[in-house]
Amino acid sequence: MTTTTHPLTFERQDQGEETARADLYGLLATLFNAPPSQALIDTIASAQSEGDGVLEKAWADLVAVCKSADAYIVRDEYELLFLGVGKPEVMLYGSYYLSGFLMEKPLAALRTDLSMLGLERVGTVVESEDHIASLCEVMRYLIASDDVMHANLATQKTFFSDHMQAWVEDMCTALEQHPSTVFYQPVTQLARAFFTVEMQAFDMS
């Protein structure tokens, strides 16, 4: 994508809800795009975690896991789950969950919509545009961008509904049920909780 994942920032009391949403989409994009560095793991581990809601609980669980996580072990887990030789253990691509195959019609439709938003994959990006990290990054852009023509709630709702809502829960289930998921267990639970909150909020908008 033409946008890149920004440095991780966490919600402060003077930040609005929209900034917090953008930050969380950015964090999920970073964690699903590549195994996290030890610096990122330590940053999450030092973050505040309070509140008793489902999303807050999921965040607290990730913070707790990061307190003892080792980047080298997490890298091994990432490579086992998402890379591997041949077919990955768990797919992170929308087309796979929507059609059963990669590079199918859902990806073509996504590329059309991205083009209308003025977004395209940069040459250095290997993954196709329907990778969960790329989609989270697009959502971050649609929330954080100053482009009022494209970055607005209606566009966010349409993009999420058209390209994420139908399959992200299936992806989360696949990850949660995989026996090798350790670090990515709380990551996935955070993603599921956040996506559920987004769906509910969009339904009310």
Describe the structure.
This protein is mainly α and 205 residues long. The chain has a single domain, classed as TorD-like, CATH 1.10.3480. Helix content is 60%, strand content 0%. α3 packs antiparallel against α10 and α7 runs antiparallel to α8. The longest helix is centred in the C-terminal third of the chain and has 21 residues. The N terminus is likely disordered. InterPro entries: DMSO/NO3_reduct_chaperone, TorD-like_sf, TorD/DmsD_chaperones. It comes from Actimicrobium antarcticum. It holds the Pfam family Nitrate_red_del. Keywords: Chaperone. This is Molecular chaperone TorD family protein.
Estimate percent helicity: 55-70%
Q: For the CA atoms, what is the radius of gyration?
A: 16 Å
Major beta-sheet overview: none
Number of helices: 10
Order of helices and strands: HHHHHHHHHH
**Total domain count:** 1
CATH-level-4 superfamily name: TorD-like
CATH topology: TorD-like
Instruction: Please give the CATH architecture.
Output: Orthogonal Bundle
Structural class: mainly alpha
Strand content: under 5%
Unreliably modeled segments: 1-15
Terminal residue distance: 28 Å
The number of E-state strands comes to: 0
Average pLDDT over all residues = 87
Coarse shape: globular
What is the class in the CATH system?
A: Mainly Alpha
